[in-house]
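Check these lines:
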Amino acid sequence: MKIQLKKTGSSAFTLIEIMVVVIILGILAATIIPQFMGTTQDAKVSAAKSQVAELESALERFYIHMDRYPTADEGLKILVDPPANDDGKKWRGPYIKQLRNDPWGNPYQYSFPGTHHPSSFDIWSRGADGADGGEGPNADVGNW
């Protein structure tokens, strides 16, 4: 003799149960994501500081070989490409593999003589806003 049991309930999730899970996930995301928002900006500032230090070191190596810093007209490009004049004989570069933009996509700035270092040079990134000065994420990152 066979006994058959009737299924009275459904084994699927109800709309209410799915909505409760979605709301819980939304609350978790709303509390966790803001903690990581500043992390990206901090990483960009750290990368800019590192790249400024790398460029500063390359400029010092250039100075040792050439007995001078690059002029404002030559800029940082001279760390990759030799000068066209007779100084090309002393040039022992390239001093860096490639001249990259800062983490915000803007070129690094260079001045000789520098405002902050009158006897040598200033090199800086203009920060997130791409303009000199600023505070917070827009602050300049330089060798000063």
